[in-house]
């Protein structure tokens, strides 16, 4: 078994640092984390979680483009404003 050194472990950052990295507000980053729109790690087991982020995961999510879902009205991206919630529609 190999030992993991501190240099190999990427530290978690808080919502303020993640917001700065994404050029968003802290509040918007937290909203996106709760909605599952950005990779985030909730800490705690109560109704209010503390959210932590890894900058590498955020960067990877930025470069990934969602696969479009085509409809007769055009292209709609999963999770976008025109997407139908799960369990609704056709």
What does this structure look like?
Helix content is 30%, strand content 13%. Helix 1 (15-22) crosses helix 2 (26-35). The protein has helices at residues 15-22, 26-35, 55-63, and strands at residues 41-43, 50-52, 69-71, 74-76. A two-stranded antiparallel ribbon has the order 1-2.
Give a summary of the structure in a few sentences.
With 90 residues, the chain is an alpha+beta fold.
Gross morphology? globular
Question: What ranges have pLDDT less than 50 throughout 5 or more consecutive residues?
Answer: none
Please name the CATH architecture.
Orthogonal Bundle
The overall pLDDT average reads 79
Report Rg.
Answer: 17 Å
How many discrete domains?
1
- The number of distinct β-strands equals 4
Q: What is the top-level CATH class?
A: Mainly Alpha
Largest sheet: 2 strands, antiparallel
CATH topology label: Arc Repressor Mutant, subunit A
Main sheet: which strands, in order across? 1-2
Q: Report how far the terminal alpha carbons are from each other.
A: 50 Å
What's the topology here?
Elements: H1 15-22, H2 26-35, E1 41-43, E2 50-52, H3 55-63, E3 69-71, E4 74-76
Antiparallel strand pairs: 1-2, 3-4
Keywords:
single chain; Arc Repressor Mutant, subunit A; two-stranded antiparallel sheet; alpha+beta; about 15% strand
């Amino acid at each position: 078994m190999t030992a993991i050194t501190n240099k190999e472990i990427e530290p978690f950052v808080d919502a303020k640092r993640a917001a700065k990295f994404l050029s968003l507000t802290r509040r918007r980053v937290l909203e996106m984390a709760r909605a599952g729109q950005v990779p985030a790690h909730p800490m705690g087991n109560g109704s209010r979680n503390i959210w932590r982020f890894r900058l590498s995961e955020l960067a990877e999510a930025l470069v990934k483009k969602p696969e479009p879902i085509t409809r007769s009205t055009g292209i709609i991206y999963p999770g976008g404003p025109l997407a139908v919630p799960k369990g609704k529609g056709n």
